[in-house]
């Protein structure tokens, strides 16, 4: 499959997941199923930039688990090493956390657990930092949101949660399907479509399961105008997709 029927402004977000100051990947968010790809996330970031990446997706895995930013020094080393912008998620649950992360050079922050457990803080962040600086990250398994680094499942429906925050002014979401993340099994296209339909006035970045260029093309061909891009991790690190080839294809 190489035909792109819909060609929107589509962004590929290479993922850099940080744990213990290193670049790693987990399978389905399981901290016991980790592969380390680089001892220097900053070096990895420069490699993605050289291959043509326009925006990087960073995750502080230790922060997600501990409930506060942990790898700030490593994060700052990344933003200093490259010219392209970065977004960061993992452990950002207060205004003070957000300010620390922005000072480390991050362009926009991703808030997930706080959105589920303390919705008021999201409204405060949107007012203080603007909707362009705040991304609502919704990680779902069987349609229900998970929090605290995917360690805790909730009874909250992912699409209902998205609709609620869209009404409160959120304009960008990251939807991650936990069951496909790190599995190289292909995205959950049905769930992504439903999520996009739930927030038609907001931008949606898909995450989880991408294993080939065909997977990316299928996402672009879903016919959802609000899909802004896709986050790709393991497929890039395992060489299933070459970033430079993918960027040539979609542009």
How large, in whole angstroms, is the Cα Rg? Answer: 16 Å
Strand content: 25-35%
CATH class: Alpha Beta
The ordered H/E elements are: EEEHEHHEHEHHEEEHEHEHEHH
Overall shape: it is globular
Classify the helix fraction into a percent range: 25-40%
Largest pleated sheet = 8 strands, parallel, barrel
Low-confidence stretches: none
- State the helix count: 11
CATH topology: TIM Barrel
Could you tell me the mean pLDDT? Answer: 89
Brief rundown of the structure:
This protein has 251 residues and is α/β, with parallel strands linked by helices. It has helices at 41-50, 61-66, 72-81, 95-103, 113-117, 119-129, 158-167, 189-198, 213-220, 234-237, 243-250, and strands at residues 11-19, 22-27, 30-38, 56-60, 86-89, 108-111, 134-141, 144-147, 152-157, 172-177, 203-207, 227-232.
Q: Can you walk me through this structure?
A:
There is one protein chain. This protein has about 250 residues and is an alpha/beta fold. The protein has one domain (about 10-250): TIM Barrel (Alpha-Beta Barrel), CATH 3.20.20.70. It has helices at about 40-50, 60-65, 70-80, 95-105, 115, 120-130, 160-165, 190-200, 215-220, 235, 245-250; strands at about 10-20, 20-25, 30-40, 55-60, 85-90, 110, 135-140, 145, 150-155, 170-175, 205, 225-230. It has an eight-stranded parallel beta barrel, surrounded by eight helices. It is globular. The relative contact order is 0.16. The mean pLDDT is about 90.
């Amino acid at each position: 499959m190489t035909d792109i029927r819909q060609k929107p402004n589509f962004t590929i977000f290479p993922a850099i997941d940080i744990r213990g100051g290193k670049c790693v990947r987990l399978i389905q968010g399981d901290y016991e199923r980790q592969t380390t790809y680089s001892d220097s996330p900053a070096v990895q970031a420069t490699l993605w930039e050289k291959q043509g990446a326009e925006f990087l997706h960073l995750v502080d895995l230790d922060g997600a688990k501990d409930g506060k930013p942990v790898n700030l020094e490593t994060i700052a080393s990344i933003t200093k090493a490259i010219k392209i912008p970065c977004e960061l998620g993992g452990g950002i649950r207060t205004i003070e956390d957000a300010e620390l992360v922005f000072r480390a050079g991050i362009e926009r922050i991703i808030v997930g657990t706080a959105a589920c457990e303390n919705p008021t803080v999201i409204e405060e962040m949107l007012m203080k930092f603007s909707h362009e600086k705040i991304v609502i990250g919704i990680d779902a398994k069987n349609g229900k949101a998970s929090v605290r680094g995917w360690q805790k499942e909730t009874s909250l429906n992912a699409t209902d949660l998205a609709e609620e925050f869209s009404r409160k002014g959120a304009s960008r979401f990251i939807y991650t399907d936990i069951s496909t993340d790190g599995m190289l099994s292909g995205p959950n296209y049905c769930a992504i479509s439903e999520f996009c339909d739930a927030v038609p006035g907001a931008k949606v970045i898909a995450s989880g399961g991408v294993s080939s260029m065909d997977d990316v093309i299928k996402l672009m061909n879903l016919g959802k105008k609000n899909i802004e891009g896709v986050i790709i991790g393991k497929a890039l690190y395992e060489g299933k997709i070459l970033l430079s080839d993918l960027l040539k294809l979609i542009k």
